[in-house]
């Protein structure tokens, strides 16, 4: 039997840079700090509960794989000034989702600095500019004041409530269209 090699498949994950953040591809060094986030009860309170390092590795490979399958996914979020891993942000689409969702999770010790809103703003801008989407949504637990606030900061409009989307319960759904985003951001 003869074996020949074809052209390799390359997964393209763009890097997006904001004033304070770098949204980039995942690295092996991200696993431990992300696992620590995923093991924190308060961080994971509205994200269907904690999970361990093995679960974190599976999630990271899933998030990377979305780039190959869908052309978008979740980036690792890095502090531009220090290089520290801060969390994840990006665009996600799963079975039963009401549309392509912008989502974020930032380390708890960095909450209330506006980093989640900054990362989501970059993801929405990239999504409309690159993917040609007409609308981007987010859904948040009704009790998650932080993410509900991020949705409003982005100019997203409350669409209603959903009892369940995927494994998440008691959600608010927000959305913004491309035209609304362009009007809001001037371009």
TrEMBL record:
Entry keyword Transferase: yes
Instruction: Kindly give the InterPro entries that the UniProt entry links to this protein.
Output: Acyl_CoA_acyltransferase, GNAT_dom, N-acetyltransferase
Designated name of the protein? N-acetyltransferase GCN5
Tell me the domain of life: Bacteria
Query: Which Gene Ontology molecular-function terms are recorded?
Result: acyltransferase activity, transferring groups other than amino-acyl groups
Known Pfam families for this protein?
Answer: Acetyltransf_3
For this UniProt record, the keywords arranged alphabetically read as follows: Transferase
Q: Where is the N-acetyltransferase domain?
A: 21-180
- Record bears the keyword Transferase: yes
Q: Which organism is it from?
A: Candidatus Protofrankia californiensis
């Amino acid at each position: 039997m003869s074996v020949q090699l074809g052209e390799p498949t390359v997964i393209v994950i763009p890097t997006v840079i904001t004033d304070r953040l770098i949204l980039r591809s995942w690295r092996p060094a991200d696993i431990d700090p992300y696992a620590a986030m995923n093991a924190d009860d308060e961080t994971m309170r509205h994200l269907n509960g904690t999970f361990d390092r093995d679960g974190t590795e599976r999630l990271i490979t899933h998030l990377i794989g979305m780039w190959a399958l869908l052309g978008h996914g979740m980036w690792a979020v890095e502090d531009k000034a220090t290089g520290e891993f801060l969390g994840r942000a990006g665009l996600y689409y799963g079975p039963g989702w009401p549309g392509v969702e912008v989502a974020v999770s930032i380390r708890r010790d960095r909450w209330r600095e506006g980093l989640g809103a900054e990362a989501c703003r970059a993801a929405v801008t990239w999504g409309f500019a690159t993917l040609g989407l007409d609308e981007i949504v987010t859904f948040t637990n009704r009790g998650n004041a932080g993410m509900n606030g991020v949705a409003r900061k982005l100019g997203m409009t409350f669409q209603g409530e959903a009892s369940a989307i995927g494994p998440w319960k008691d959600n608010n759904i927000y959305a913004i269209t491309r035209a609304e985003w362009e009007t809001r951001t001037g371009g």
